[in-house]
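Inverse folding, one chain.
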């Protein structure tokens, strides 16, 4: 049987916080935990801009209209007046979807939206005294993305065409048909109807069908689906309509030729995997655990094409292996790509695998689970191919990486001193450390806090939230190596602090 989520076991880690504070020198930030609705007047919107619910619109306008150099202080003042964490999070997401266009790619400036759930997960997993730091970083990043969008034409989400919105009975079919035709206006209207008439899990099932159907935007489509629904789960379904409209628009991004009428490379795995999904044995969700088999499949994935990778997954499942074994191999293979060429492409192999795995665990549609597993297997070779287009791809073999050997076991402080300077040594030390400390609490706490204090881009949050969550999803035999691979994109203790930390501290203390 596939493993149930162990997210709760790995999110709320605080035992290692004191030691992490020693590495970071952050002991003086305890005042943040003492901080706890907006009453700003609503200014006029552009005539055709989408309006949000009355309870959140004023706070969203505050984020939109306050200059970047004043925003953190303005939000801190609202928090002191009683504005809640949930309200700030909702406003942050909604400001992003109204003001930032997910084009030309579902990435780039649109990370202001994609990163919201990652920042939220980081906040949940952090001790109370640091919980606002990821959110305040995201607030500042929204202003960067908003300015970039203005420079590119100042896109704003318009009000939906009400006459085109289908009724509750026809909304699911209308949405599915529009997405299959890649019909943006029809999908926009149908997405609004889904938000109005469906329950969250019903809408998720419909969007899940299109999360991983193509490889455009290097996995950002799957990331947006999972992150959007995860954030809505926390802030409330009443905010869903603009989010689902933005999501449908992002999922329909293509390169000019309508994929519904062409045979294009990003779409081929989805088409061929329809037949493969049917080939999996009837009881495929059960099976034997076999760590060695996961390593064997990961070895195949080092060089396999997308088609061959999917065929090997089918063979593995039909030989009696549990899908957990396949997921272990996918996580480890994604981690190895990062070791072989640290950078923007390989880190998305990990964040995409995180998003698809979340969808796999969440959907109740067995056929969809089959397709998601196979699509993830197809995507990893496609990521590898993209990496070759960016330069040399190393030969490091994560499965054969030797743990650090020394008279004394490595400390967390020693590991993060090596990150960014002697990262391969840091990875080897992680294997030795996590083998002795399987829960890796202190190391994970420190990694997260280093992102808070040293991180300076959206991928620091997206990546760290994904891999530190997924550590708990792997079989125990593979966790140490997976965590070792993450060192190639985490922050080291010798890096300069992000100045936003001091500014956030001053804003919340002032």
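Residues assigned per position:
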């Amino acid at each position: 049987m596939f493993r149930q989520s162990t997210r709760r076991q790995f999110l709320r880690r605080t035992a290692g916080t004191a030691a992490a504070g020693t590495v970071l020198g952050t002991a003086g930030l305890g005042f943040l935990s003492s901080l706890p609705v907006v009453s700003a007047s609503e200014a006029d919107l552009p005539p055709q801009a989408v309006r949000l619910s009355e309870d959140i619109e004023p706070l969203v306008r505050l984020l939109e209209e306050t200059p970047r150099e004043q925003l953190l202080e303005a939000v801190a003042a609202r928090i002191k007046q009683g504005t809640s964490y949930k309200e700030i999070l909702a406003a942050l997401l909604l400001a992003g979807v109204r003001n930032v266009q997910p084009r030309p790619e579902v990435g780039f400036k649109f990370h202001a939206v994609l990163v919201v759930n990652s920042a939220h997960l980081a906040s949940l997993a952090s001790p109370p005294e640091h919980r606002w730091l990821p959110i305040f970083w995201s607030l500042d990043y929204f202003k960067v993305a908003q300015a970039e969008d203005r420079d590119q034409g100042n896109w704003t989400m318009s009000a939906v065409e009400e006459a085109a919105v289908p009724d509750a009975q026809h909304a699911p079919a209308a949405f599915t048909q529009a997405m299959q035709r890649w019909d943006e206006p029809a999908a926009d209207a149908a997405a609004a109807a889904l938000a109005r008439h469906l329950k969250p899990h019903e809408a998720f099932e419909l969007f899940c069908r299109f999360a991983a159907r193509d490889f455009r935007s290097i996995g950002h489509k799957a990331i947006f689906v999972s992150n959007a629904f995860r954030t809505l789960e926390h802030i409330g379904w009443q905010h869903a309509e603009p989010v689902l409209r933005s999501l449908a628009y992002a999922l329909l991004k293509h390169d000019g030729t309508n994929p519904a009428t062409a045979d294009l490379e990003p779409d081929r795995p989805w088409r061929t995997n329809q037949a493969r999904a049917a080939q999996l044995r009837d009881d495929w969700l059960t099976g034997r655990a076999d760590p060695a088999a996961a390593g064997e499949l990961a070895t195949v994935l080092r060089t396999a094409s997308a088609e061959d990778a999917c065929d090997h997954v089918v063979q593995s499942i039909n030989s009696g292996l549990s899908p957990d074994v396949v997921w272990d191999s996918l996580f480890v293979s994604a981690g190895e790509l990062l070791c072989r060429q640290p950078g923007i492409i390989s880190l998305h192999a990990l964040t995409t695998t995180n998003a698809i795995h979340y969808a796999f665990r969440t959907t109740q549609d067995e056929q969809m689970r089959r397709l998601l597993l196979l699509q993830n297997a197809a995507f990893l070779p496609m990521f590898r191919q993209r990496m070759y287009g960016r330069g040399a791809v190393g030969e490091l073999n994560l499965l054969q990486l030797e743990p650090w050997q020394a008279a004394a076991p490595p400390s967390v402080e020693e590991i993060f001193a090596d990150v960014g300077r002697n990262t391969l040594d840091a990875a080897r030390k992680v294997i030795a450390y996590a083998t002795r400390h399987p829960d890796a609490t202190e190391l994970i706490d420190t990694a997260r806090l280093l992102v808070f204090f040293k991180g300076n881009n959206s991928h620091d949050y997206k990546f760290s939230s994904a891999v530190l969550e997924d550590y708990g999803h792997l079989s125990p035999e593979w966790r140490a190596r997976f965590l070792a691979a993450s060192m190639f994109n985490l922050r080291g203790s010798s890096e300069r602090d992000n100045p936003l930390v001091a500014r956030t501290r001053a804003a919340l203390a002032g």
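The first helix runs from residue 7 to 11. Confidence is low (pLDDT under 50) at residues 1-17, 26-44.
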